[in-house]
Amino acid sequence: MFDKLFQAQQKAQEIKERLDHISVSGEAEGGKIRVIASANKEIKEVNIDPDFLKDADKEELEELLIVALNKAIAQAESISQTEMAAASQDMLSGLGGLGNLFGNK
What we know:
Elements (H helix, E strand, L loop, with lengths): L1 H19 L2 E6 L4 E6 L4 E6 L1 H6 L2 H36 L12
Antiparallel strand pairs: 1-2, 2-3
Helix pairs in contact: 1-3
C-alpha cells in the first residue's frame, strides 16, 4: 500500500516537472499583447508591441493584459488536467480489477 502511495507521489512530481517545461501563450489585440506561461500556471513573459504601447491608454492595456493572461492560464489548466487524467488512468489500470470500481474499463 505504501509502495503505491510512494509511486503516486513520484508520478505527481514527474508531472509537475514536465508541466514546468511546457509553454503556453495567450494573446490579445491580434498578438500585440502576448503572455507566455508554463503549464504549471507560472507567468514567464509578457510582451507588448512597442507601437501599440505608444497609442494605448492605461485602462485599455490593463484590460488586454487580463485577456491575454486568462487565455494563457486557461491553456495551462487544460494541459494540466489532461496530464493528470492520463496519470490517474495509468494508476487505476495498475490496480488491476479495482479500476473498474470507478467506471474505467
